[in-house]
Design brief:
By secondary structure, the chain is α+β, with helices and mostly antiparallel strands. Helix content is about 45%, strand content about 15%. Strands 5, 6, 7, 8, 18, 19, 21, 22 and 23 form a 9-stranded mixed sheet that branches. The radius of gyration is 32 Å and the shape is elongated.
Length: about 775
């Protein structure tokens, strides 16, 4: 064995990490032990010695013959395990514990990466024995984040393999904690085992496992219900099984590698292709006479995951070859050009410079989010230049470079880095797979470099190594504490929001004014379970369908949740959330008010306008961007017209609520292809450069009676679901600017008005928390 290697035992031991003598070139099938070097550590005993240890019965053992034999075997295996393996076992247990602790302290309500909600919902659905969450009518009102409606169920964006792990944990233990612990421990163990295959040294492999376990990126990801850390485990398991099976000429490791490869390809196919392509080519070129043997067993292992993918694809998309990832939005794909995350998303022009900047941002952060990131990169480069790497390790390094090049073309990394910015406090999670070559090659380079320095003199070695290690530890502590602090702020905002919603009485129905129109975004608090029977039921505020949802749940009082436009986008973003009581009003005409406080538009706005849209009718009303504005509009069955608008009088009139016509006549236009009856109220602001953008929007659900022209029509002409007052508010920062609420019953000119609040006729009001008046439900259900 070359310099820096460690002699290994000639035959495998069942203890953790005790592998047979490893050839640094991975070419020989022989299993002879390599000679030990002075810095190689203790040498494992030969097999006969192990059997002799196992055969010695401890004196005075009170156990029976069966238990005594089992105890002897366990003690013998533990005694035979090398020190590095025992250390890694302890490290794996600590990593598992850290994952659970971080889960309950930093991410008890999930993180602000809302993809967690997708995996958890899928896991809960699988644990209940269903492949997809059911989609009740109206399906779009309960749409989960990045889900789409197919027939009578929701199809979520990702394949079911990672959710199945958490589903098993939920089914067995009723919690996802065991799954998190197993994944975290498996990441450490498989890193160690692969490190032994790549370097031939258990000490180097243990160092690689330590570097991985102490990385802030891994620590935080281990507490999240996401695919990045499971994919890391699967990628390393694939390489481990192929290399070990090839070296020993044994089929089971290769078969297991095929299973891991199939699952990894289903979970993160792009990562698999980029990272493993160089190693796959090297295996095909160097496995003369055994190439087809490897391929045969790999394909056998691939068969089961491939069959599952084909079947689930067919059930989800109607085609076995179409993944659910592209079902929601075809423009969410690899490559340059116009990209979208969901159908209502604006088109983002993603180019080469954007890809380069996003990869650069990820790598910059990885320098601190990987334990010793910069040092490991330099050590990896030095080890490669000095030819201290085995051939598989060199191919792994090439795979890491190919991964970075390939991610220049992946717009999702740019979205996370530039448009959202979540990688700054959740870590560069798209680079989790890069940790594989970084820790393995970096560990080899660090071990070789440290040995070379110490060989030149202990004082020189310690003079260099101690400051480097201290700097690495300091940087890691700073990054980790900063990340924990930022995420605790975000979690604190969600805790306040959840507490406010749980204070609402009588199993409330909460409509979320979300943009985009998904539940579980921008906060995981507003996500439903698969059976839609949680104490608080959430629905997307969409328009006329809201009236159907209210009618379907007459026993639940209805509320509207409004969030600040940039709620929890970052730790410094606004976190204001307010709850308003909803009521159903019906009649020939229903009046509603729109209030815009002073300073609702950005500070340097040149002008502003309110736009009311109902079907084909659109009214635009100029407003002062620096002054408060309040107007009343009337909803009837003849469309939205200029005569339906009036500005509230603020001149101190003796008649409260008196109205006047706008000083500037509103502009009425026709919307081509406009549909629907609900009124969308949008506040626009124009900056000094003349660029107009939407500041806020709120939808007032309106239903018009069919066949109004018929003289014998029954029921009210207009039915409206609107706010009747604020109930509670939490958070800090800017508030949602718009307030659209129902006016007093007398404000509707002419015709009778029936008031139904929360779907029920009300006769009185009662006070609930904070002095706000909300209706008291009394009798029959509303429409």
């Amino acid at each position: 064995m070359r310099k820096g290697g460690v002699d290994l035992p000639p035959t495998p031991s069942a203890a953790l990490g005790s592998v047979p003598g490893v050839s640094s070139r991975h070419e020989s099938r022989r299993r002879a032990p390599a000679p030990a070097e002075p810095d190689s550590g203790p040498v494992l005993p030969a097999v006969p010695a192990q059997r002799a240890v196992w055969g010695r019965a401890p004196t005075g053992s009170p156990a029976g013959p069966g238990e005594d034999a089992l105890g002897r075997r366990l003690r013998g295996r533990l005694a035979a395990a090398p020190a590095a393996a025992r250390y890694v076992a302890v490290l794996a247990m600590l990593s598992a514990a850290a994952a659970v602790v971080l889960r309950h302290t930093v991410f008890p309500l999930l993180s602000v990466n809302n993809d967690e909600g997708i995996y958890l919902l899928h896991a809960r659905t699988l644990a209940e024995g269903r492949l997809f969450p059911p989609a009740p009518h109206p399906a779009q009102s309960y749409l989960p984040w990045l889900g789409t409606v197919v027939d009578d169920h929701y199809v979520l964006k990702y394949t079911p393999f990672v959710p199945a792990v958490f589903a098993a944990s939920l089914f067995v233990a009723g919690s996802i904690d065991p799954a998190l612990a197993v994944i975290a421990a498996a990441a450490v163990v498989v890193t160690y085992l692969l490190g032994v295959e790549l370097s031939g040294s258990r000490r180097v492999a243990a160092l690689a496992a330590t570097l991985l376990a102490l990385s802030p990126l891994v620590l935080l990801q281990s507490a999240m219900v996401l695919s990045y850390l499971p994919a890391l485990v699967l990628l390393q398991a694939t390489m481990l099984g192929v290399l070990r099976g090839r070296r020993l000429h044994r089929a089971p490791p290769v078969l297991g590698a095929g299973v891991a490869l199939g699952v990894a390809a289903a979970v993160r196919p792009y990562d698999v292709v980029l990272l493993l392509a160089p190693l796959a080519v090297w295996l095909l070129v160097t496995s003369a006479g055994r190439c087809w043997w490897l391929v045969r067993w790999l394909v056998c292992g691939l068969a089961a995951p491939a069959a599952i993918v084909l079947l689930t694809n067919a059930a989800a998309t109607g085609s076995p070859l179409r993944l659910p990832f592209a079902l929601l939005e075809p423009d969410d794909r690899i490559g340059f050009g116009l990209r979208k995350l969901y159908p209502a998303d604006g088109r983002h022009d993603f180019g080469l410079t954007d890809g380069l900047s996003s990869v650069g941002d990820h790598l910059w952060l990885l320098g601190g989010w990987a334990f010793g990131g910069v040092v490991l990169a330099a050590a990896s480069l030095a080890a490669g230049v000095r030819r201290r790497l085995s051939a598989p390790a060199a191919m792994l390094g090439l795979g890491g470079l190919l991964f970075l090049i390939g991610y220049v073309c992946f717009w999702g990394a740019w979205n996370a880095a530039e448009l959202w910015g979540g990688i700054r406090y959740l870590g560069p999670f798209y680079m989790v797979a890069v940790l594989i070559p970084l820790v393995h090659l970096g560990a080899t380079g660090c071990a070789w470099g440290a040995a070379a320095l110490v060989a030149r003199g202990r004082r020189l070695g310690f003079a260099v190594l101690v400051p480097v290690v201290a700097a690495v530890v300091t940087l890691t502590v700073v990054v980790l504490t900063g990340a924990v602090r930022d995420n605790l702020v975000l979690t604190g905002n969600d805790r306040e929001l959840r507490a406010m919603l749980r204070r609402l009485p009588d199993r409330p129905l909460v409509f979320v004014a979300a943009n985009p129109a998904f539940l579980g975004h921008p906060t995981p608090v507003t996500a439903n379970g698969p059976d839609l029977d949680d104490p608080v039921l959430y629905a997307v505020a969409r328009g006329v369908d809201d009236l159907t949802v209210v009618a379907d749940h007459p026993d639940r009082p209805a509320y509207l949740l409004r969030l600040a436009p940039a709620y929890d986008r970052s730790p410094g973003s606004p976190s204001t959330a307010r709850v308003e009581r909803l009521a159903v009003r019906a009649g020939d005409r229903v009046a509603a008010t729109v209030a815009v406080p002073a300073g609702a538009t950005p500070p340097r706005s040149r002008s502003a306008r309110l736009v009311l849209t109902a079907g084909r009718d659109r009214l635009s009303i100029p407003v002062d961007p620096r002054a408060a504005t309040s107007l009343t509009f009337t909803v009837d069955d003849d469309g939205l017209g200029v005569d339906d608008l009036a500005l509230d009088d603020d001149t101190g009139s003796a008649r409260p609520g008196a109205a006047r016509k706008p000083a500037v006549r509103p502009t009425a236009t026709v919307v081509r292809g406009g549909r629907g009856t609900s009124v969308a109220v949008t506040l626009y602001a124009t900056d000094r450069r003349g660029h107009e953008h939407a500041v806020d929007q709120q939808i007032l659900p309106v239903r018009l009676a069919a066949g109004r022209a018929a003289p014998d029509r029954g029921g009210p002409a207009v039915t409206v679901l609107g706010s009747v007052g604020q109930v509670d508010e939490v958070g800090t920062g800017a508030r949602p600017p718009l307030r659209v609420s129902l006016a007093d019953a007398g404000a509707a000119r002419g015709g009778d008005v029936t008031d139904r609040r929360g779907g029920e006729v009300t006769q009185s009001t009662r006070r609930i928390g904070g002095g706000a008046y909300v209706p008291s439900s009394t009798s029959s259900p509303g429409p």
